[in-house]
Amino acid sequence: MSVPCARIVPVVLLLVLAVVGILLLVVPARDVEVPPEHMYGIVLDAGSSHTSVYIYKWPADKQNGTGIVTQHSECQAKGGGISSYAGVRGAAAGSLTECLDQAVKVIPTSRHRQTPIHLGATAGMRLLKKVNATESDRLLKEVENKLRSYPFIFKEAAILSGQQEGAYGWVTVNYLLENFVKYGFVGRWLNPGRQMIGALDLGGASTQITFETSERVENDNNSMNLTLYGQTYRLYTQSFLCYGQEEFLRKLLAHLITTQGVKTYISHPCYPKEFNTSIKLGKDVFDSPCTKHNRPAQFSPEKSVTLVGTGDYQSCLDNVKKIFNFNDCSYSKCSFNGVFQPSVKGSFMAFSAYYFSHRYINTLTNMHITSPRQMEEAIQLICNMTLSEITEKTKQIKKYTKNVCAVSNFIKVLLTEGYHFDSLSFPSISFEKTAGGAAVGWALGYMLSLSNMVPAESPGVIKSLPYGPWFCILFLFLILLITALGYLLMTYRSTTNKEGMV
Length: 502
Ligand SMILES: *[C@@H]1O[C@H](CO)[C@@H](O)[C@H](O)[C@H]1NC(C)=O
Ligand SMILES: *[C@@H]1O[C@H](CO)[C@@H](O)[C@H](O)[C@H]1NC(C)=O
Ligand SMILES: *[C@@H]1O[C@H](CO)[C@@H](O)[C@H](O)[C@H]1NC(C)=O
Ligand SMILES: *[C@@H]1O[C@H](CO)[C@@H](O)[C@H](O)[C@H]1NC(C)=O
Ligand SMILES: *[C@@H]1O[C@H](CO)[C@@H](O)[C@H](O)[C@H]1NC(C)=O
Ligand SMILES: *[C@@H]1O[C@H](CO)[C@@H](O)[C@H](O)[C@H]1NC(C)=O
Fold this sequence. Notes:
- This is Ectonucleoside triphosphate diphosphohydrolase 2.
- GO terms for molecular function: ATP binding; GDP phosphatase activity; ribonucleoside triphosphate phosphatase activity; UDP phosphatase activity.
- By secondary structure, this protein is α/β, with parallel strands linked by helices.
- The protein has three domains: 63 residues; 179 residues, Nucleotidyltransferase, domain 5 (2-Layer Sandwich); 187 residues, Exopolyphosphatase. Domain 2 (Nucleotidyltransferase, domain 5).
- The protein is 41% helix and 20% strand.
- The chain has 15 helices and 18 strands.
- The strands form five sheets. A six-stranded mixed beta sheet has the order 10-11-9-8-15-16. It has a five-stranded mixed beta sheet with strand order 3-2-1-4-5, with helices on both faces.
- Helix 2 packs parallel to helix 4 and helix 8 crosses helix 13.
């Protein structure tokens, strides 16, 4: 080679510099770190139908930053939600034993006394509190004493409000997607201008919708300003009590019974054809505070009626719509039941029961649902299926399979006619169970908020490098890289050309 080293060496150095610079800017920090020692946190999600226990972990030397906290393990408590043990002393606490004992095992002993434990109860307990506040207080105290009997740091056992539940779900989604803070090898920086993702949660007793909006929120009860890492997010949030999956199904039964009159056979258009089942008027329908108001005049809770499935898509849909009030609205616009809602904007993540129903619809019809029209076609097919067809394809127990037609219609009406997702905005909903290895729900956002791990102010350790400058620097390094490569290539070619001529 006749090319002088003096000409090549500085260019090679520039090339190396450019590659290193680009790597520093784009490679996520976590991939190259050695696993450090961890800290742990426990959240009990005391839902209306069951309790889930989540254990989270994060590197012991860091805690403020998104993407740092991950899910370590998860445990589903056997039996019903804590509210289902109303009136039975000790049973709610007892139902948690297995999962708490497991937490003791999976968290290293040396960390037990540094591990915070929180219990958040949702709509099941909100409903019980309406019916019997003494009993809901007693239950909370009972589970609190249970949590205190373990070697962890007890933080709280509380009933979350609908707004809190919605907002914590939103925090979880955007934290897991690293929308607040961006990571690079040299550190983390804020991520202003990033589109936040809205959260759609469907539980057993309530459903939540939460998203960032720039429109005026006409009812203060739906407005929440969250300041995280020095950025303020204006959120719209609404929780519909009694519009969770289980309570909706109860409301539908109550509606069918009151419109047809209390008689031995009640036809149920959403149940599969040739399926019938017997229910008790009290326990299965009218005992809930969600249905109490339309109890029939001569009502005896022990009376049974037989529901006879007719598998009639159109009649099912018509009855499902009756559970919503789309007419009364004292604001400029509403979702339903007179509740204000700005237009849905941006992308959404739909989780919990939304995810499972969406999966059933896909499994049953082999259709990939991306529009309301497709969803309607899929539901028509599902409502026409027999119980054995559904059971065969989903491998699920009767409790779920008999309700797929009703729940699918409910979700479709809720999303399209309730929240006003249309053929343009519907595809922006993604149905997920997990993100970044953690279950999507309010639990993570709740722990992060209570332990100040998503601080309001922008902590000093985080380098505030806005997206614009970050991109400029990346662009400069890329120019450098291309120039250096180009120069080397030209030098190489002129050298080989000269050699060829020799
Ligand atoms: C995290 O942020 C909170 C609030 O800003 C602060 O009190 C705490 O010391 C921070 N922790 C770490 C490890 O930086
Ligand atoms: C509420 O629960 C308590 C038990 O904590 C019970 O003694 C009382 O009768 C209940 N009240 C009502 C109205 O059901
Ligand atoms: C806001 O919520 C409170 C408590 O639930 C309620 O009393 C009040 O009427 C609500 N305000 C509006 C404007 O809806
Ligand atoms: C949130 O901030 C906006 C203006 O930035 C204000 O109009 C609204 O009332 C605030 N909401 C709450 C609940 O503080
Ligand atoms: C309900 O089902 C049972 C057995 O599954 C059957 O004997 C009965 O005739 C059915 N009743 C109606 C009204 O379809
Ligand atoms: C429902 O299924 C039956 C056969 O099980 C079929 O004859 C009928 O055409 C189907 N109806 C619709 C609307 O798909």
